[in-house]
């Protein structure tokens, strides 16, 4: 299976996550999950492969993220 591009020019099978809320005051495992997603600052975005592991991480800290 090849990775094509959708109409926006972005890879299929990927998800964009943006940190929209501070991790200050959150549980340490939630802070570690946000770092695991590659997010360090508010309004920072990352384009990640849409895998079950990444989806699980997103679900764990969904209250801190915007997913598109």
Fold and architecture overview:
It is a single chain. By secondary structure, this protein is of the alpha+beta class. The protein has one domain (14-67): Ribosomal protein L30/L7 (Ribosomal Protein L30, Chain: A). Helix content is 26%, strand content 21%. The chain is built from 2 helices and 3 strands. It is globular and about 35 Å long.
The main pleated sheet reads as: 3 strands, antiparallel
Tell me the helix content.
Answer: 25-40%
Find the CATH superfamily.
Ribosomal protein L30/L7
Report the average pLDDT across residues. Answer: 90
What structural class do the secondary elements suggest?
A: alpha+beta
The proportion of strand residues reads: 15-25%
Termini, distance in Å? 23 Å
Count of DSSP helices?
A: 2
Radius of gyration: 13 Å
Classified by CATH, the class is Alpha Beta
Kindly report the spatial arrangement of strands forming the biggest sheet.
2-1-3
How many beta strands in the DSSP annotation? 3
CATH topology: Ribosomal Protein L30, Chain: A
Query: Which spans of ≥5 residues are poorly predicted at pLDDT below 50?
Result: none
What's this entry about, in short?
The chain has 68 residues and is an alpha+beta fold. It has two helices and three strands; from the N terminus they run βαβαβ. 26% of the residues lie in helices and 21% in strands.
Task: Summarize this structure as a short list of keywords or feature phrases.
alpha+beta; 68 residues
């Amino acid at each position: 299976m090849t990775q094509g591009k959708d109409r926006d020019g972005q890879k299929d099978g990927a998800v964009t996550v943006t940190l929209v809320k501070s991790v200050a005051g959150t549980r340490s495992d939630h802070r570690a999950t946000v770092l695991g997603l590659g997010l360090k600052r508010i309004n920072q975005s990352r384009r990640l492969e849409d895998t079950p592991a990444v989806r699980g991480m997103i679900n764990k800290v969904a209250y801190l993220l915007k997913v598109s």
